[in-house]
């Protein structure tokens, strides 16, 4: 099995504010050699969390099974596989959806696209052909089309 294609980093959440990187490394290293630990404590309203990276996938998998739900300094921790930025959903904060109602029957998708073109890139425009209580409708989506 090619270990390079398997995850080696765990997310460890719901930590007590008294937990340190050193303590996490001491605990998780009992299961297998750890490469690193990065503690995130900057969110004042949320519990700290950390990422523990192992050298080997099998050690990370064993730590996931052994440590999820265990108490560290009185708090049951949540352990999951860490996700990478590439596996996160795409940022759609600059993507907008516009519903256009009460269109005349002769208005086409091309007409809707042309009407919104001056406002920026259009990733999709769709003229809905069915009538809704006698009114035609369409939608326009702007933003990246990826």
TrEMBL record:
Identify this protein by name.
Answer: TIA1 cytotoxic granule-associated RNA binding protein-like 1
| GO cellular component, as recorded | cytoplasmic stress granule
| Record Gene3D superfamilies | 3.30.70.330
Q: Which domain of life is it from?
A: Eukaryota
Keyword field: RNA-binding
Residue ranges of every copy of the RRM domain listed in the record? 8-84
Task: Write down the InterPro entries for this protein, in alphabetical order.
Answer: Nucleotide-bd_a/b_plait_sf (IPR012677), RBD_domain_sf (IPR035979), RBM42_RBP45_47-like (IPR050825), RRM_dom (IPR000504), TIAR_RRM1 (IPR034492)
User: Which GO biological process entries does UniProt record here?
Assistant: nuclear-transcribed mRNA catabolic process, nonsense-mediated decay; regulation of mRNA stability; stress granule assembly
Q: Which SMART domains match?
A: RRM
Asked if the Swiss-Prot or TrEMBL record annotates the protein with the keyword Iron, the reply is no
Gene Ontology molecular function: mRNA binding
